[in-house]
Amino acid sequence: MELRTLLHEILEEVRPLQQQGQVAQYIPPLALVPRSKLGLAVVTLDGEVHAVGDAEEPFSTQSISKVFTLTLAFQQLGEELWQRVGREPSGTAFNSLVQLESERGIPRNPFINAGAHVVDDIVLSRYAEPRTALLDFVRCRAANGAIADVAAVAEAERETGFRNAALANFLKSFGNLERTVDEVLAYYFFHCSLAMSCVDLARSFAFLAHRGICPWTRERLLTPSQTKRINALLLTCGTYDAAGDFAYEVGIPAKSGVGGGIVGIIPDRLAIAVWSPALNAKGNSLAGTAALERFTTRSGLSVF
Ligand code: GLN
Which residues does the annotation mark as catalytic? Predict the structure, then answer.
């Protein structure tokens, strides 16, 4: 079947599911996004783009941005990174505080919020212009110079980010942050506020499907071995405490965000991004997960 036809079919099949789940309420601007938004985009490594529904409309990337900051930190620190953050699924919510105290300030993985704060601390220490470094990175990967952060979203998150503040303070008390708590949180809210479309996101993940080389600029961003490792983390930790279920249902490395986006890759083939704002209980897009399940099942493409 034509890829585009398959994407259209999937979109119509999952549309009724958009009535289920909850649009994130704890970040006020996200609560205003209509649950009817639905987009799906596939980008193949030769640059073909298949976009259906609202796939060109930018939305809040939220935790998906943690993959970009992790790449920046990994480029600088390599394996040394793992002295400060673990590589195990947490089995707890992305913003949970419980493990951080008993595990003495070493977050379970780079995709829960505490892990992302440590990664951000590294980016802040290693890059002279950390915001520019990130914006340049996503704009080049997505081949879209218009990608930007949304200050109002970052500010709303700062005002309501009590858990993130608690996590960052815990990390600081255990000596796992070099920069100040405020600097780390400001950078974290900045990158969570990046607005990107499904097409942007699928393009920007394509290097992870291409052994670490950006298919458009031909730049090597990570070694094949490092790329394998980031993809392993996406599979085991990219959808938080639903990662086991997601691997069973969908079977690809992927990252979700509370803006309702999920981006995944199939090595040597393609990157796929979906957007539907209503989330399941674990904070992953409900209809988005269903769309990806249908895609991998019907196309027969997954990592397994
Ligand atoms: N900015 C969000 C938060 O810190 C990101 C969480 C997410 O997308 N899962 O709560």
Answer: 63, 66, 188, 240, 258
